[in-house]
Every structure is written in C-alpha cells, then in structure tokens.
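Retro notes - structure team

What went well: the batch runner handled both jobs without manual restarts.
What didn't: labels got mixed up in the shared folder, which is why I'm recording both outputs here explicitly, each with its sequence directly above its tokens.

Job 1
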Amino acid sequence: MGVLNTKKLKIIAIIEVRMNSSRLPGKALIEVEGKPILEHVVNRIRLCEKIDEIVIATTVNSLDDPIDELAKKLNIECFRGSEEDVLLRVINASEHRDADLIVLSGGDSPFFDWEVANLLINKYFEDTSRDLVLNSLELTFPLGVYAHVVPLKILKKIESLANTASQREDTLRYIFENPDQFNIYNLAAPDHLRRPDLRLTIDYREDVILMQKVYENVYAHKKDFTTQDVIKYLEINPGIADLNKDCVQMAAPHTVRS
C-alpha cells in the first residue's frame, strides 16, 4: 500500500471537450432544459465536494471559442491547447493549475455522477500506489457513468512513452494498451447501479433524445439527481431506455462488458 502524503493533494477535474467531435460535432453545446450539456457537466462536477477546482481543456481552434465563452460565463478556468495531442493538453492544463490528482471527464457527460467520483477518489487514497482508478474498465455501471482518477505524475510518465497518434489523442490509451505496466483499480457497480445495458452517453441523436427525456422528467424535479434516479425512471419507462438500445458504442475501446 502506498504511503499517504501528509501534504493535501490538489484535486482538479479536467473536462476534455471540443466542438469538432468526430462522433457528434458540437454535442457539448446541445441545449437541454435551457442549458448546454457542458454547463450541466460543470454543475454536476461541482456537486463533488472532494474536487477542489474544475478546468475545461479545449483546443486553440477558433471553432472552440464558444466553449471558452461558456467557461467565462460559468467562472471556470478554460485552458486551450493542442487539438490532436489531447494527452499533452490535459497535462498542460493540470500543470497550469498546479494539480496533483486529476479527475478526467468529457464535456459530453451529462450523467456524470459525483457520488461515484467521490468513491473513486477515496479508492485512490486507500492506496496511493495506484496509477489509475476508474469504474469503466469492466462495464458494470450504465455506459456513460464514469470518471478516471489519475495522478499527474502518471500522465507525465505516459506522455514520455506514448508514441502513436491514437495514444496522444486518447489521454489514457497508453495505459489501456499496456495494463501490465500499471497499477489499475476498477470499481464495480453495487447491485442497485449494475445496469451495463443502459446507454447514458452521447454519440448519436437517439442518445440526445434519451438524455432530453431524462432531464425533462428527472432533472426538472431534482437538479442533483443521481444515477439511481435515472435507473428508476428508465425502469418505469422502458420505452425511453429502448430509444438508443441498438446504438453501437463508438468510443471507450478498452471497456469490457461484464
């Protein structure tokens, strides 16, 4: 077990986002219940009391100016870096804010669960020799309910090793392709959240429609809704859950279905 540093580590959430997404361009600014998805992501991360600060990491491409403008409106730091080298962009954003421990999320994650993020952070501090703590290596939670907790020193390590375009474009791909080199901890979902069949991610228009239905019927009545609230709603309304059941996952190639 790692030795716990007596110095309080600075924990920063980094939201990776850009407008020119290959899957669904501009999806981070799609509005739901009067706010862009990215604003909902920020607000949900703010519910995680263990996170000290939030930074949006976008690109220097002028297409991403609206993201920068939204960050200013939300009083959130926006770091702009390489469009293709996402790994370096995240490292530079983390160094810019003197981060020690990073909680990675995407700007298209409207179902970010701060309770799960808290659990993952706690798991890191239970054993600080861990290089990566996550809940998506084996899919037990609904797809899209995830966070990755990784020390900055590990990101710097993989930055020196990652030598392919895909390993630079996907922040943690080097770890997923070389798991034997790292101490990885995967958090499995408790029984009441074990619904890997549900898609709570945004890649297709069907995913957007499902998200809008959930937000109209769950968020509208409970702004700090949890994953359990979403699961209950979809169990009562199976037709909504069926909207995107045939969509093929386009990202997270490391994830193994349980």
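Job 2
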Amino acid sequence: MPLKRVIELEHGEIGLDDYPIFDETYRAKLNKKIIDHYWNQEIGLETNDMFRLAMSRKMNEIMPLYNQHYVLSLLTVDPLSTVDLKTIVASDGTSNTVGTSSNEGLSTAKARAIGSEFPQVVLMDNGDYATTGNDTISDTSATGNATDEQNATQNATQESTNTGYQGHAPALIFQARQALVNVDMMVIGELKELFMLIWANNDSYSGRRNYYGIY
C-alpha cells in the first residue's frame, strides 16, 4: 500500500504530529517534504497502525539530534572571517604617602624689679640691699605633633581588536561549502527503513487480457 493511500485511510494521521521540533512553525513544512518524498512509495509494514506507530517512534528518536542541526544551520557564518581577537590590558596603581612632623619647644624667662631708697632688705648673701624687691620667673614649654597621609589610586584599561582571516580565500570558501548540509534530506533519509522502496503509480491494470502481446 503506498503512503498516499495510508494518508487517505488514516485521515492524514501518520505519526507526524507529536515529535519534538526546534520550531513548531516548521513542523508543517517538514511534514510536507516527508509526505511528498514518499508519496508513491509502498509502506514497509503490514498494517497502517504499525506504520503509524513506527513513524512516530522513529521521529521521536531522531529529532532531538536533528533539532541541533537545524539550530546550527540558522547561524550566519562568514567564511572569510577566521580571526576575531580582542585584547584587553588593565592596570591598577595605588600610592600611599604618610608624613609625620614633630616639634617641641622650651623657653624660660626671669625678671627682677628693685627699688632702693635706703638699704633695708638683704637680697642675697653677697650684700645687695634694697628697699623693695620683686623677682619673676616664667618657664614656657610647647610640644606639637602633625601627621599627613595621602592615598592615590589610578586605573587604566586599554583594548585592541584584530579581525580578518588567515589562509587562502578560495580554500576557505570551498571548506564552507562542504560544511553545508540539507537537514531536511537527512531526516527524510532516516525514514527509508519504513518503506519498501517500491514505486507505486496506482495505475489500474486492464482486465482485457486479449490485448496484451498485440504489439
């Protein structure tokens, strides 16, 4: 029984509705390619139910891997861009300056005021006399400390970018072409085992046997 007859009998339900796919909007497009490719091919299983189960099982087994192929095929790659280097140099500088100063001073002052009309009071043992006397002694001491601290931090970043390609340009383009794959056909090829690979055109055979062998 060819696939198109199975689709008619099963109202389009042939196990292509629930397999995982990278983009749900792509399911109808992929299903159409599968159906169109095997439209006239005879199924390789005894019943429609067995075929539908086999199709569903196979698609669920292979699509997790092929979904990754689909995602990669969507990437835009420039075959003449093989070098893309970015260099970042960062430098940090920190300086710390501490200064300390200290000063200390000591001063002494003495003063004497003497008035003498007639010697009355002995000032010292050496015989100085005075009517009145006043001695003043002053000591002054001063101490000072000062600390000065300075911190400085400097950050600098330098960035350079190098892009282009290395190698022979035609060779790079040729390698890029070899890397291209048709993921749809890879999926379709995986389904060969579900069919007998016999082409059925559904032409009706003539019942008038006397016509055979005329020519």
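One thing worth noting from job 2: Strands lie at 41-43, 83-115, 121-122, 129-130, 132-164, 195-199.
We'll revisit the folder naming next retro.
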